From TrEMBL:
Family matches, as InterPro entries: BCAA_transport, Leu-bd, Peripla_BP_I
Family according to the record: Belongs to the leucine-binding protein family.
Gene3D superfamilies named in the record: 3.40.50.2300
Signal peptide stretch: 1-19
Alphabetically ordered keywords of this record: Signal
Keyword Glycosyltransferase among UniProt keywords: no
Leucine-binding protein domain segment(s): 27-372
A Pfam family the protein falls into: Peripla_BP_6
Domain of life, per lineage: Bacteria
Protein known as: Amino acid/amide ABC transporter substrate-binding protein (HAAT family)
Length: 418
């Protein structure tokens, strides 16, 4: 309830200022994100990270001598709303667009941005097809892909849970299927008779869907329960699993385990759960990233909490786009795209690259395990949720060029981005 009241106060203070601060000489960028719906926590984090980045850039003189201004629309993580948002923000003058939590939302917004010759950055959206089968020259992805997550997490699980039986509960859409397939491949659990699984509807799952799926997991002899769910769906499933006592009998794994899920669920319920993240606030200190440590401190001072990965992604997108505009000395989409492609940088952690082949951000992936309650509350922030138990460099995690071209051929897509 406290976090909800803070969020409401945040929007009451911020939205009027966004609506009135409209200098004629500003450069407009557009954020389409879930302000409502199941992924609203991740959406709020993106807005906060974006506002912090814009404040910093404007204090340093803006871009091409002009201040940045943010326009935003609520997508509710729905693809059709994301498309309309893109149309609306471009009509208002947005020269670049970003956002999303759902992969389907990211794909839809990216396709619509292409029709307007605008770049779209998927801040969050883990399904492989965002930058593979559905990839094109107008979309970049900041977050990791399902392949990257599966390879990092698979390495750790194979080493620490050898010869164990798995049970998969998967959201029935592209992200769920590609994440499950990647993790099965990297944990040698592709035999579905030995390592069974069930799907649950998305985005219309009911409590009975979670209960039925978890009862099947409980009745199995699996040692590892993989919840290929995200956001609110993962929160509901973990609470149900805890009520059933499954966390005492099985190792809980969630491919994309975020700070907001811990905060919504409660860290005490999730102790020992294993997942993967592309950024967490402990990383800058671990990798001696001065810019990253400053981001954590500034975010904490501004909002009273430590930043989650969704905030870091939005912050990174804006700074990287602004840097590409400065280097190309133009807002022209083709020129900015060229400046981004194969550009290597370090911002909030170690080196990363916008790969020219597919516009996937190649970056280190971290396998995390949820800390016990005493560790969480010992830190002044009360947000020390994760310990990093394994990591995999981006070059080793990302889909190879040959794999990417093969996937494109199978989908009937050209072997270069169009």
């Amino acid at each position: 309830m406290t976090r909800l009241l803070i969020a409401m106060a945040f929007w009451t203070a911020v939205l009027p200022s966004l609506a009135t601060a409209e200098p004629d000489d500003s450069i407009l960028i557009g954020l389409s994100y879930p302000r409502t719906g199941h992924y609203r926590e991740e959406g709020l984090a993106q807005m906060r990270g974006a506002l912090l980045a814009i404040d910093e850039i404007n204090r340093d003189g803006g871009v091409l001598g002009k201040p940045l201004r943010l326009v935003n629309r609520d997508s509710a993580a729905r693809p059709e709303k994301a498309r309309r948002n893109v149309d609306s923000m471009v009509a208002e003058g947005a020269v670049m667009l970003f956002g999303s939590v759902s992969s389907a939302e990211a794909i839809a917004a990216g396709e619509q941005a292409k029709t307007h010759d605008r770049l779209y950055f998927a801040t969050i959206g883990y399904s492989n097809d965002v930058t593979t089968e559905k990839g094109h020259r107008h979309i970049f992805r900041e977050s990791t892909s399902a392949t990257m997550t599966g390879r990092a997490l698979g390495q750790y699980l194979t080493q620490h849970f050898p010869d164990k039986k798995y049970f998969y509960i998967t959201a029935d859409y592209n992200w769920g299927h590609t994440s499950e397939d990647s993790l099965r491949s990297n944990t040698h659990t592709t035999d579905r008779a030995l390592h069974p699984g069930v799907t649950i509807p998305f985005p219309t799952a009911k409590q009975s869907d979670y209960s039925t799926a978890l009862q099947q997991a409980d009745a199995s002899d699996a040692d590892v329960l993989v919840l290929v769910l995200y956001g609110h769906d993962l929160v509901r499933a973990i609470r149900t699993a805890d009520n059933m006592g499954l966390s005492r009998d099985k190792q809980i794994v969630a491919p994309n385990l975020t700070q907001s899920v811990i905060e919504q669920t409660g860290s005490s319920i999730m102790v020992g759960a294993i997942g993967a993240e592309h950024w967490l606030w402990r990383v800058p200190e671990r990798e001696n990233s001065k810019t990253g440590m400053a981001f954590v401190d500034n975010f904490n001072q501004k909002y009273g909490i430590y930043p989650p990965s969704a905030a870091a992604s939005a912050y990174t997108v804006i700074h990287q786009w602004a840097d590409a505009v400065r280097r190309s000395q133009t807002l022209n989409t083709a020129a900015v795209t060229k400046a981004l492609e194969n550009h290597t940088y370090s911002l909030l952690k170690g080196p990363a690259q916008w790969r020219g082949l597919d516009h996937q951000n190649v970056q280190r992936v971290y396998v995390v395990k949820v800390n016990d309650r005493s560790t969480v509350i010992q830190h002044p922030s009360k947000q020390d949720y994760f310990q990093i138990v394994h990591q995999l460099d981006g070059e080793d995690a990302v889909i190879s060029p040959d794999e990417w071209r093969s996937a494109r051929r199978v989908a009937g897509q050209p072997e270069t981005l169009q």
